[in-house]
Amino acid sequence: MKLKVKQLVLTSLVAFSSMACAQDTNFEPDHQQIPTPDCLLMKAAYDGGWKTCTQEDHDTWLADIRHWRSERLIRIGYDGSRYDMPALKWTHSSFFQPQMMVQDRYFYDPVAHRYTVDRYLNDLEKRYGGIDAVLIWPTYPNMGIDDRNQHDLIRSMPGGIAGVRQMIADFHKRGVRVLFPMMMWDQGTRDPGQPWPRAIAELMAEVGADGINGDTQDGVPLAFSVAADKVGHPLAFEPEDGPSDEALAWNVMTWGQYNFPFVPMVDKYKWLEPRHLVNISDRWNRDKTNDLQFAFFNGVGWESWENIWGIWNGITPRDAEATRRVATIERAVAPFLTSSEWEPLTPMLRYGIFASRWPSNDQTVWTIVNRNEYDVEGHEIEVQPEEGMRYFDLYHGTELKPERNPKGKVVLSFAIEAHGYGALLAAKTAPDTAIQALMSKMKQMTAKPLASYSHEWTVLPQQIVPIAGTKSPSAPPDGMVRIPAGNFVFKVQGIEIEGYDDIGVDVQYPWEDSPRRFHEHPMQVKSFWIDTYPVTNAQFKKFLDSTHYHPPDDRNFLRDWKDGSFPAGWDNKPVTWVSLEDARAYAAWAGKRLPHEWEWQYAAQGSDGRVYPWGNDWNASGVPVPDKNRTMRGPDAVDAHPQGKSPFGVMDLVGNVWQWTEEFTDEHTRSAILRGGEYYQPQGSIWYFAQAYKLSEHGKLLLTAPSLDRSGGIGFRCVQDAE
Fold it and tell me: Where is the signal peptide (predicted)?
């Protein structure tokens, strides 16, 4: 009996709690989106049939979500004063923002050793009309290959802090705002030594950045905005996932993680605060129609993200042209798109045509999308008549001739193509010069229909960078093992954390027609000599003493050395903090070269397909003990683990330091294939650079410039042709 009473009390408390936190609405937000009237969706007979929405249906829905908004703002104690800050008003119209990898070849020229901001921006303007902000990404997926934290990686960018500051100034000259990411999961690399809010605020103030993207965050805490204000450099914080409604007051931007039903849903944050800017993020989808249509309908923007962790998902010509048109209109009517009187899903006359109405003073703009797979032309919308009101088709750049229907309403007719866009302006005066310029531009732009542009997505081809052969030695070279010629099945896969098995992931070998994650190719390997051990600090110092080599980009060069020499006792440890270019310079001096990846794997694996150099079963004594601390202890000596030798007698192949092999390029990215894995393993996140101890796996490091590419976790060994 007592148990039943307790259960009854508990049930009542749960029910009361649910009532206490509930808010009365028939259209409860689904994560970041507010549902639409049920009548807008066509239903089959077995689903109860379908009826056309009435004005009453629309008015009931609109009244409901307006009531929900009013009450919600009270419930969260909303204060929108942050949106009024002059330093953050740019966010109200920052519609198009790519996430840009620092490895993008349009952004930095490693030969000229300079940022090429104009080249990067000119390409985007040419292809899809340019951008309003850029999220510069210098961290994942490379982060964790050594103990540099996310702030250290920004400082390691070409030119250091001064170079980054000038690069940001170059973006500002072109009217483009700059954001960097913040990874709260980065708790396994070097401790920044001060509270995160202050560390981020001070660094962003130092380089002159405008905002922060909160990677994997469902809201950036208020403390970060407070810290930025305290150093006199307010930042726009943009969490990846939607924040709590209360955090809307200080997270002035968000990413839009949307569902895309036929009827566009309303963005919850934009509805609560019309000045809030959303960038829809849908990076892996190859068709951007949904992104652009939902953005245009909601008066928000799009994360025009093509270089996804070095995997190119380029925008098709049709989507690029659609982006150009949407961007041109949104930028021109931006003040309307923050209207507190926004009316989403304003009634239209044709099925599948959806619009938002944006009143501002005595003028009104409509943003319209056609979700149908066919063109629609003719009567599209009816409005209440107003004396002296004129109507302009902003999308086609013409003035419309209004008609009167029997009900006495004004009817407007225009065309909107399949999966296309429309925009109207109602005004009692002639358009101002800005709107006239928009109409002139759009008239020229839309003379060619979107359907005439290709919507076919194509993969970006890659090329392997050739490795020049060497002279064969006249006698067996010291410290090298001869690998005999033989038949070899080169079978390897990339360990990228994202991308699944989509075409374009990983790399493209010369015998393949596209980049892909899984590779298998039978080949005849010619005989070659390979270093028994990786190049050591002592060997590299001989090279420096002989050549006086000093790289043009010397940031982080031999970072663990001091006064021109390695630490005491490190003579037989593998040299690290050397770039691919540094390793090539050493190899050329020694009359050698870096190995092809298949040569490295053949020397490690032999012809029996073994999992590890020593066999198929794991042997912990064959590799260094993993270092899971926040700072690196340094690698083991190259001869410390003789149990790890390969069938040919090659040593220290796995688990001490990664080793440079191939370089691949495409139009936008350079990357290097690393083999063998390393001892350093930062903890606390799956997002750190993955390990590849197995001989069937390789790592892919995205390349920018030596300052960023060098790592305490990467060394190298050389080969020499035997034939």
Answer: 1-22
